[in-house]
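Action item from last week, closing it out:
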Amino acid sequence: MNVKTLLILLGLALATIFALVCVLLTRGRVSSSCQHLPLEQEDTEDDQSLVFADLTPEEMAQVVRYLQANLGVQLVDASRAKPSDNCIASVDLQVPAKAEVLRFLDGGGARPPREALAVLYLGNQPDPNVTEYVVGPLPLPVYHRDVTVHKYGGKVPYHRRPTLAAEYKEVGGFLKSQVFPSAPAFMRQVMEYDGASLAVLTAAPRGFQSGDRITWFALFQNVSGFFVHPVGLEVLVDHSSLDTSQWAVSRVFYNGQYYRDMVQLETAYVQGRISVEKVRKAPRDGDFSSMKPRAPSAALFPLQYEPQGPRYSIRNNLVRFQAWSFAFGMSVSRGLRLFDIRHQGERVAYEISVQEALSVYGSNCPGGMSTRYMDGSFGLGHYTSPLVRGVDCPYLATYLDVHYLAHSHVSRITKNALCIFEQNLGSPLRRHYSNLQSLYYGGLVNSALVVRSIATVGNYDYVWDFIFYQNGAMEGKVQATGYPSSSFLHGDGLRYGNRLWEHTLGTIHTHFINYKVDLDVGGVKNSLMAHDMVFEMTQAPWSPEHQIERPRLTKKVLDTEDQAAFRLHSEMPRYIYFAANGKNKWGHQRGYRIQISSFAGDHIPEASSMERAISWARYQLAVTRRKEEEPTSTSIYNQNDPWTPTVAFADFINNETITNEDLVAWITTGFLHIPHSEDIPNTVTVGNAVSFLLRPYNYYDLDPSIYSHDGVFFTNEQDFTACEINPLACLPKTASCLPNFPPFTYDGFQNM
């Protein structure tokens, strides 16, 4: 054999060895795509949940066409309506009466007629007003009825109407065409205004008494994150007249001084009689307020996936997850809401819904100091924002679209407005390691189902979650992020917040969130119970000369609404629960406990002329008899007339008996926000989250999560590496698959 042949054979041998090594090294690493296992489906009527379903675009269009043809008044599209026009402000689902729904769901009764609630602004009338019509039956309506007087005890005055986008556009045009040109030197030299370089932010409410529609509009540099770029100029506009040509400027504020109008400001500027604080012009990206990352991408953050597919199902508006089922929907004004919430097939709550998000601001600038935002009036559902896959929710969550009709005659779609996902919370729901007597480990992963939407109302983003746990507990949670609202820093501004940038005062404000929780524990009729503790002194039975302090259980029935109304910072029983008539195996009344996590600021003084409009915020918890005529704790009309509130929650509490009645818990959570330098570029969710829990309290005979398929248990005598003993031992086989990540898409910038 010559040398050449030997070298060829040696080369082939090396190549073969290299190929074998590659195969050995990669063996077990080539994973197949994850395979979805079919879910076990309960044999129930899935379409029953449609009684709570949001209106479809076709149904909304039918309502609009019906009203155009049958009201006998000319209706202008709300997107271009003037205050003096008639228009449809919104169309939403009219939720049927609870008794009708329960007869349908539980008693085999007829399906309630499907109806819509249409809110109309009737400005082109001898007596302008807001009128609400119920229109039905859908999908082909043949009737409408005016429900305004029945709901509110009278007509809704026109000045109470929530402000349409078209009216804000009119105000913007008024400022640009009539107000700013009256101070040309000031606007050009101080504001560097070029016709598009300023952004406007509204204050609310609008005045000091019923009938006012006089609003402070604060000016900011029109850059990314403009909310923290105040320029020191604010204008008070009287836009109460339905004739926009009669709108006028009532006051002007600049850098701590008030002026009659822009003409007076211009004269003072030209004559050198004002203190000018010129703001450095920010680049278009906002500079310090830009959310563009300051660091390049690096190692990918952790992702979660479902190796055998989702363990929840969604059909129409019905969600099932393990022992849970519920229907979901989105109110135009109040946002995310759930109905017919069941665990192990038994209803525990009829309705759980967001009611209101309130912010009360302090400042030494007029716009800031007069702001009490009631975001339901702007529309928590209307301003639900498209979710970004992988950031707002896990990448592989299920994303659902929402259709709504507001500020226009045509329905719109918010793509990916809801997400639903199961989340491994990375900690045990329960566990124990035993090294005494017997040796074993038992535990259960805390995996929960999350339903989420995010509403962006102006500067703030509210992350709304409803979370379902395997032990029968449910949580309502909200996290706040977005930009802090700010004022121009001048004078004694630091009494009202912290300096965030050169001219930016982050203004102190409160957040209050109100929920409606209609629990039906073991049936519709419930009572409210309070358990707590006291220490008692007792002689030690085995040693009478010594005393022992021992905690003792206290029990009380809260039998009237007054007893069940707990003021914001007052002491409340630590265990408070809705009790059923039935008992569990151990003789205790079955119940669901309400547990609130909140660090709210102070409520506005009750002596305030507008306090009754937000009187729900007096209470951390108030339990009342459920009444169809008290469907919500507030009204969209309270924002623009808080001095004569259309709905005053304080009137719900009138000392009626609440023993063995259909009850509703009104829960308020909140937090105080004093913006600080770390709120730049914007506010983080960490530490800005509040919630409430609904927890079984003697409702079951034992923890229902013991029946979860996710449980882990093994002893020292077992082979815990065997799959049949320990499912975790199977993960290398069952979870070694490649998840299917769909391409990233985003539709949030379409149809703006």
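Closing note: The domain at 312-707 is CATH 2.70.98.20 (Beta-galactosidase; Chain A, domain 5).
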